[in-house]
Amino acid sequence: MNFFQALNIKKQTLISLVGGGGKTTTMFAIAKEAKLKGYKTVLTTTTKIFYPDEQIHNVLLTESSFNLLADIKNKLRASNEIVVGTSRTDDGKLLGINANCMSLFFEAGADIVLCEADGSAGKSFKGEADHEPVIPSICDTIIHVTGVDSYNQPISHEYVHRPEIIANVANVPIGAPLNDEVISTLLVHSKGYKASLTNQCQWVPFINKVESSDQLVTAQKIAECLRKKTVCKVLIGAAVNSDPIIKVLR
Predict the structure, then answer these.
(1) Average confidence score pLDDT of the chain
(2) Which residue positions does the secretion signal occupy (predicted)?
């Protein structure tokens, strides 16, 4: 199963990716599916992502929102998929677009907009600071990515992003294992990602990096814990695979 099937993605959809453990990989996997459908897709970020390989991806840098609409229109005439940011940072990152500018992508002719709306410092799980995530107001779907490889790792800077926030929200000590109860508590906490939802926006956890039978068992434990906390849908899979979704729990 792919993301379009699992999420029933239609044209004129803006998807934001948050969390840790494969947001960028997931974003480009969805873009690949959109490309196969012939959809015009814009990939962007409200934070920053690793700068894409320009031999593979069409990158548009636009420092001014004044020129953004015209620039996007021109790029989409030549390519069905473009990556948009404002600049390239000294450390090789693509700096993102203001969240309020996202509607311009649809005005320019995009069918799908994919936005990485969170940073995790390369970790597979994170605690959310007060200013995170930066989700566009017109977002239709939030995919919260969690890497299954974070399961049972110590809640420490070595394994997770912002361990002090995780420990505080889950009411466990620093160094405690990141078990299914801690993961699910963070994901559904009122001060976490669900608090960023608007009425029309669906929130779907995606347990990523599941590539073995043992990891599938672990992912299902996390998903069942989320379901007990009234989460409507949980995706399990590996974004790197051609069929990225192994299972959907409803």
Answers:
(1) 94
(2) none
